[in-house]
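Lab notes, practical 5.
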Amino acid sequence: MEHNPGDGDVALKLLHTADWHLGRRFPAFGRDQEVLLTRARLEVLGRILNVAASRNVDAVLCAGDLFDQPSPPEEWWRGALREFARRDWQRPVILLPGNHDPLTATSVYHPSHPFRAGLPDFVHVVDRPGWQLPVGDHAVVLANPCTSHAGQSNLAEKLPPREPGDERIRIGLIHGQTFDIEGHQTNFPIARGSAEARGLDYLAIGDTHAFREVEPDAPAPTVYPGAPEATNFGERDTGNVVLVFFPLDRRRRARVESERVGTWTWREVHCDSLLELKALRTEPDLQHTVVRLTLDMALPMAEYDEAERILDELAGSDAATPRVGVLDVRRERLRLAADADVALDDSLPEVLRVTAERLRLRAATDETAGRALHHLYRLSRKLLD
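Output from the prediction step:
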């Protein structure tokens, strides 16, 4: 992150964000966990607008995929309206339809939709090709919306070029994929050199979820801010917005600074020993972490029981706060050791001891049998207490 330049040499200051994905569902998790992650996308919107106020930016650019679908459930667009309604300012906030939430006759961006009708005056929707909005006396935002989920048009090429004598700061705003994503089939492709070709001082783009400055040596920055909250495992450099500082000296390149607004991190953890599982339990600050935990270990019964108790602690219950915010356990290879001694008490009924032995013979290769044997083991201990 660059040092924040002093305002004395700054002609214009913007906040650039994208890919909120309001209303995104996470069906792979339990209902309560899914609600946490879906709600986090709305909560981060408030933090984004707080940064815009605290850094006193001149405009907020929202580069598409603000909703996860063009017609999201009412709770999500009404939630966005509430966040905008809390602001008492005049700085423009510009909403660009992306490929997840394209501009259509039934989308939230259409003039007939109550979301569009309920927006305060300072929020502007890019609702036509060739859209423009002056920012102050010396800058202009030029934008083209997505009107479908997929397309091969380079929306940057459709921005008007700089006319002779136009000395304004020109900011482009589009949604699409750049040439530098190796092996990736592009959707609304953005060609190399698009910012320079259109005479832009900055090209604000959205689509991929990682903060990335494209063509860092080009005269004008082309930047993905990334998603303000991660949406899946494997994503990197998420959780940010971008602040853009345009210097008074037009010969100097605009400065780009990322600022973190996200609270959730997503991690994939592989444990092949009880020691590693214990180490995970002692990690601090897991309450805002999504953990996909893969277990691969064969344990004697006492250690198997301890592993189960640790998993219960990580996941929480109605009576205990979970240590991990969202936990997805892949336990197919958590199993009893082949020579595990179940050690049921001789005073227990013969049928229980026979059942335990049958389960023990299968437990080393059958995770379900191992879990059943463990339940039997716990039950037998409770009967003896």
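Observations recorded by the TA: The chain has eight helices and 17 strands. The CA atoms of residues 36 and 67 lie 17 Å apart.
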